[in-house]
Every structure is written in structure tokens, then in C-alpha cells.
């Protein structure tokens, strides 16, 4: 999640990896409400969701992540049962600490992006088209 030049990230309590805070949407929850709830649970930061900056799909696990810019509206960042560290990272630190699949979500910058990955590395667009063509051809 991006606010200004620093990028909000957490170190996951379950596996020690650095990722964006967030979570899985509840059945009756909008994406904006879900991201605000997820970030609050993991970082104790209240926020106002701003624009959607990207859609990222893990082709291996079938998970789609929506990434938003935000404006902080209260709370003091701290860890929770789901995070062992909360930090506002510089772009250089994001690249050092996160896998490519998570780094790109934070560094994509302005505009809206749609990308796919295997959980760690981006899948080139040409490969995505081949996978999509095979999947739709089988249906």
C-alpha cells in the first residue's frame, strides 16, 4: 500500500516474508472495506482507501489481489498477531525485502496495472496469453 514516497509493508507472522498488509474479503464486504479492515487488523492503522493501482493474480493458487493507494486517518502503526514488523519502506528497501511478485505491487507506481505471477516471479505477458488461450479453449 502506498502513501507518498514510503510504502506500507508488514513481515508476516506465519512465514516471516515481507508483504503488503490486507487480507481476504468477507462475503458481504466491498473491496475498500475489506482492505481497510485487513490493514487495521495487521497494523492498527486506520485508513481511507484511495484509488485502485493494480490487479495481481497468483496463477498457481488462483488468488487475485487488488492493490490500493490510501490516506492514513488514525492509529499508530504496530504489530499484531498477524505481523511481526510494520514499516514504511523506501522503494530500495521494498526491492531488498520482498519477492518480485510483491515488489511490483508496490513499485508499479501511477496508473492501473494488471499482472500475473507464480507466487514469487512475474509471468511474462506472452505466457499469460498462452495460458489464458488454453484455459478458454478447454471450457
From TrEMBL:
Out of the domains of life, which is the source? Answer: Bacteria
Q: Where is the composition biased (Low complexity)?
A: 73-84
Stored Pfam families? NUDIX (PF00293)
Residues annotated as coiled-coil are none
Record Gene3D superfamilies? Nucleoside Triphosphate Pyrophosphohydrolase
* Chain positions covered by the region annotation Disordered: 73-93
Domain named Nudix hydrolase: residues: 1-112
Q: Name the protein family.
A: Belongs to the Nudix hydrolase family.
Q: What is this protein called?
A: NUDIX domain-containing protein
What organism is recorded for this protein? Streptomyces sp. R28
Amino acid at each position: 500500500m502506498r502513501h507518498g514516497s514510503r510504502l506500507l509493508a508488514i513481515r508476516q507472522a506465519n512465514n516471516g516474508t515481507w508483504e503488503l498488509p490486507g487480507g481476504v474479503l468477507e462475503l458481504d464486504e466491498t473491496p475498500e472495506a475489506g482492505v481497510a479492515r485487513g490493514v487495521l487488523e495487521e497494523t492498527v492503522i486506520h485508513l481511507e482507501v484511495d484509488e485502485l493501482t493494480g490487479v495481481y493474480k497468483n496463477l498457481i493458487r488462483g488468488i487475485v489481489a487488488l492493490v490500493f493507494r490510501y490516506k492514513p486517518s488514525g492509529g499508530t502503526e504496530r504489530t499484531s498477531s498477524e505481523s511481526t514488523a510494520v514499516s514504511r519502506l523506501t522503494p530500495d528497501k521494498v526491492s531488498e525485502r520482498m519477492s518480485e511478485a510483491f515488489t511490483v505491487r508496490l513499485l508499479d507506481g501511477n496508473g492501473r496495472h494488471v499482472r500475473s505471477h507464480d507466487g514469487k516471479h512475474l509471468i511474462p505477458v506472452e505466457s499469460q496469453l498462452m495460458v489464458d488461450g488454453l484455459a478458454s479453449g478447454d471450457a
